[in-house]
């Protein structure tokens, strides 16, 4: 499990760097350096492509950004031509970075972004729309915010229907527990759509397993170190009553497993979500029971492509059907029975995607609870 310790150490280093950059007013320097004067990219209207996200040391977000870089390389650019806005999980910084980007490039901006939490999506979209730029979002927005209410400027929103896959992983976990015993859940940021849906999936599965008891639910904010601390607290409080762990992300599962091993409880089964390379490898080894792959490489590339092509006028978002403006991304549950084949196809090498085929892997329009 040395990679888990290395992952925790890298998160600590990254956090320190973010604090130093913030203190000296240098956050966002990554995007300033990537578009130095004199670097003319062969793009119509001199459009600047940017990705705003939490943290590249997180394997999931690294997959997202790698997809964005693959897209800009398909334009004949270098991957360094993509502007990186790294918010470190701060919605305030996310919005501030976007506004700085817009003040510099105005309507020549094509932005791909996870707004970090649901409430932050509206001010981001409004700032982009008022500037005449273009934005495509993923994961987090409120149900009353829709791309078609902003003409062409709010290009699209992609999320994932996490309830059913999360329920599937919970069932895998409960079966491994013999259908009885206590389970704990470590969730993401409470206001995040995926955190809400993944907990709902767990609770749906519980209805079919009357002898499984949900001992505790606690947010660990998608963070490996915090998950390690939360799991240590659960072990202190519940001890041997814990027979299984349901995690809302792979990165939190790494911290959980480290805590379990430290207490000599490495035999407790764990399931997670995101399908990161390390997690899929752990599933092949039986160290995780299951994870859920959401194809971040494709999502990162397509989200950037949609914003860019809207910006250069390749298509008019307002003329597209609504299922092309709000749609679900793909999700695949990976278990020990199929992890090796899955790893060979999707992890060991990224499939080649046509970045102009925007909705090839989309799984239908987003549905809202009425």
From TrEMBL:
<dbReference type="GO" id="GO:0030313">
    <property type="term" value="C:cell envelope"/>
</dbReference>
<dbReference type="InterPro" id="IPR025997">
    <property type="entry name" value="SBP_2_dom"/>
</dbReference>
<dbReference type="Pfam" id="PF13407">
    <property type="entry name" value="Peripla_BP_4"/>
</dbReference>
<dbReference type="GO" id="GO:0030246">
    <property type="term" value="F:carbohydrate binding"/>
</dbReference>
<feature type="domain" description="Periplasmic binding protein">
    <location>
        <begin position="50"/>
        <end position="313"/>
    </location>
</feature>
<dbReference type="InterPro" id="IPR006311">
    <property type="entry name" value="TAT_signal"/>
</dbReference>
<keyword id="KW-0732">Signal</keyword>
<dbReference type="InterPro" id="IPR028082">
    <property type="entry name" value="Peripla_BP_I"/>
</dbReference>
<comment type="similarity">
    <text>Belongs to the bacterial solute-binding protein 2 family.</text>
</comment>
<protein>
    <submittedName>
        <fullName>Sugar ABC transporter substrate-binding protein</fullName>
    </submittedName>
</protein>
């Amino acid at each position: 499990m040395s990679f888990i310790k290395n992952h925790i150490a890298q998160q600590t280093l990254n956090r320190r760097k973010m604090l130093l950059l913030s203190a000296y007013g240098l956050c966002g320097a990554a995007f300033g350096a990537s578009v130095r004067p004199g670097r003319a990219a062969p793009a119509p209207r001199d459009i600047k492509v940017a990705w705003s996200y939490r943290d590249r040391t997180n394997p999931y977000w690294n997959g997202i950004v790698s997809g964005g870089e693959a897209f800009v390389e398909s334009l004949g650019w270098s991957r360094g031509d993509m502007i990186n806005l790294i918010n470190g999980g701060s919605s305030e910084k996310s919005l501030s970075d976007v506004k700085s980007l817009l003040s510099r490039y105005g309507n020549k901006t094509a932005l791909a972004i996870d707004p970090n939490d649901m409430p932050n999506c509206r001010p981001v979209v409004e700032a982009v729309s008022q500037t005449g730029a273009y934005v495509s979002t993923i994961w987090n927005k409120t149900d009353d915010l829709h791309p078609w209410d902003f003409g062409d400027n709010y290009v699209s929103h992609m999320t994932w229907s996490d309830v059913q896959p999360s329920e599937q992983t919970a069932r895998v976990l409960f079966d491994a527990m013999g259908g009885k015993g206590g389970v704990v859940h470590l969730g993401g940021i409470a206001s995040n759509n995926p955190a809400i849906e993944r907990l709902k999936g767990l609770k749906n599965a519980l209805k079919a397993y009357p002898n499984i008891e949900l001992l505790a639910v606690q947010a660990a904010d998608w963070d490996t170190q915090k998950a390690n601390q939360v799991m240590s607290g659960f072990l202190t409080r519940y001890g041997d009553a814990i027979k299984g762990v349901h995690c809302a992300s792979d990165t939190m599962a790494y911290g959980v497993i480290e805590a379990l091993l430290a207490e000599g409880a490495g035999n407790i089964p764990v399931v997670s979500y995101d399908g990161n390379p390390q997690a899929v490898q752990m599933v092949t080894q039986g160290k995780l029971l299951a994870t859920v792959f959401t194809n971040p490489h494709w999502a990162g590339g397509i989200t950037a492509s949609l914003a860019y092509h809207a910006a250069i006028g390749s298509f008019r978002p307002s003329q597209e059907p609504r299922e092309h403006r709000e749609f679900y991304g793909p999700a695949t549950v990976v278990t020990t029975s199929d992890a090796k084949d899955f790893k060979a196809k999707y992890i060991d090498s990224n499939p080649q995607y046509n970045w102009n085929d925007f909705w090839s892997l989309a799984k239908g329009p987003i549905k809202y609870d009425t």
